[in-house]
Amino acid sequence: MNYRFTHSAKRGKFVAEFWIPVCFLVALTIFYVAYPAALQRATAIAAAPFLEAKSSAVRMAEEFYFFFVSKRQLMLNARELSAKLSRTEALLLDREILLSENRILKEQLGSGVEGQKARRVAAVLATPPKSPYDTAVISIGSEDGVRMGDLALFGSVALGSVSAVFSHTSLVAFFSTAGVKTDVVILHGNATIPVEAEGRGGGEFRAVLPKGVPVAAGDYVTMPGFNPAVLAVVAAVEANEADSFQIVRFRNPISLESLRLLEIQEVDEVARREESGSGKAALPQ
Fold first, then answer.
1. Which among 139, 173, 128 has a CA at the least distance from the CA of 275?
2. Cis omega (within 30 of 0) for bond into 129
3. Residue 243 in domain
4. In a domain, 21, yes or no
5. What's the total number of domains in the chain?
6. Verdict on whether the full-model pTM lies above 0.85
7. What is the CATH classification number for the domain harbouring 219?
8. Which UniProt keyword terms apply here (predicted)?
């Protein structure tokens, strides 16, 4: 009795597993033949969420890929442009140096300007970092008439003064040496603004002025005197609303590390004594 019941149950399960799918396929076939458009619409509606999800995933993957590709390309382009700019600036600097050196040599071979102190051309043997900080070693010394306190220039730009003299070489200390104070004049429009500049090292200076004094980036800074020489160019003006003063930062227009020639100009004894007594730079006459 138990055997027949078990056999009947297995047979009923087999019939259900076989005939239900068959009936479903037959009904589906009849429905497709009778109403093909309805079945297509139902299939499209059922598949729409999956197709939309696939499309969104593909779109997001493409955007993600192009974002990183574009960012990498922009970085490469920026580096390339920066390298080209650096090369162009170096070429321009070399050109300006060569033009100035050419003019200096022509002036030395020709006649000097009337009323101007004599200048001696010296080759620069060492500059920072090969020489002591903010100094340059030049190729002329006491045997060539160089004396302590003589002014060192490059064209019309005053860079420093002779701080040590040997027989055939000398040491030039730049005005930008940290802590060195120099009396200068800032030229702003038609105004001349006297101020004390403090060296910050590496061709940079700072000065403190009352907040109302007009100064702007690009203004020239000169040495005072009858024949003023350019010392620097204003790079930035810093001021807080709460302060009553402003800080003016300026730097040499010549790269100290690129110097190959310097002109040494004699200063008179009065200026030389003032420099040695005050610790400030002698003024060009």
1. 173
2. yes
3. yes
4. no
5. 1
6. no
7. 2.40.10.340
8. Membrane, Transmembrane, Transmembrane helix
